[in-house]
Amino acid sequence: MDPVAKQRWPRSGLETTLMGFGAAPLGNFFSAMSDRDAATLIETAWQAGIRYFDTAPSYGHGLSEARCGQGLRWYPRDQFVLSTKVGRLLTPRKREEIDFTPWVDGLPFEWHFDYSYDGTMRSIDDSLQRMGVEHIDIALIHEVDAYTHGPRQPEIFEAAMSGAAKALLRLRDEGVVKAIGVGVNECDVAQEAIERVDFDCLLLAGRYTLLEQDALDTFLPMCEQREVSVIVGGGYNSGILATGAVPGAKYNYAPASETILERVRRIEQVCREFDVPLKSAALQFVVAHPAIPTIIPGVRSIAQLDENLRTFAADIPSGFWSELRRLELIRPDAPTP
Prior knowledge:
CATH class: Alpha Beta
Helix content: 25-40%
Strand content: 15-25%
Shape: globular
Pfam families: Aldo_ket_red
Number of strands: 14
Structural class: alpha/beta
Number of helices: 12
Distance between the termini: 8 Å
Enzyme class: oxidoreductase
Low-confidence stretches: none
CATH topology: TIM Barrel
EC number: 1.1.1.107
Radius of gyration: 19 Å
GO molecular function: pyridoxal 4-dehydrogenase activity
Strand order of the largest sheet: 3-4-5-8-9-10-11-14
Protein name: Pyridoxal 4-dehydrogenase
CATH architecture: Alpha-Beta Barrel
Number of domains: 1
């Protein structure tokens, strides 16, 4: 599978590479990198053929957007797709007064949630200035689910649908952005969003992986029916599908349970039998679904980028997927390459 092959989005006409560039690490997520290393990483991704880059104001309190803009600014604007988020506004503040957790330092801005119409308009303007680009292709309402706000705050979702969504619909109608949607961690929230608003796309962190396929029940069929494109982040379930079932392996940002560890061990056994890297299987499985044109693994180093490209391109025999089905390690209705 060619990681830099282009896939066309049915509603917006955008074309993204199968493997995009998840720019959260450029915001110093859990560990710092230099401006020079960030610039070199974007240049290397470009030379490899990657043409989709995803960032957000919250990543490093504006740092990821600033670095994406610096790295991409002088490339032909019609040759890449750029997405960012709305829902958090940044305000200047003394660095020593800011809690950057989980970012290891960032730009001297404090963020606060704002899903209002006016806040969304300001957020897009701020992002354009931070990145120094003339337009954004994809704007996503960021984190309106219980994963971020807790299960007892449905008013957050309502505010986003009545405020931010209205603003994004206007910006799309005016041609300021080409595609709009939400970026969340939960399928049911994503599904409710497309039931409520005429969105073009969704960014889903995990929830459809080698380990999780409940999205096949209603969510992904609805996306197919409505031609809504699904961007998948977290295809490794935050680590375990990259590391394997090693001690301390992370599943959804927490230590993996014994049940998950055992399931991954069984998948790894099939990988050994067919000489298939676990990471290759994880990446290729996700984008085999017709509603998913791209996956955006976070990239922290050139070595990691090179490994992602190599593993994505690995040849996987059809018998591998048949064996996973036979052992009930993937659902029988899950599309495979």
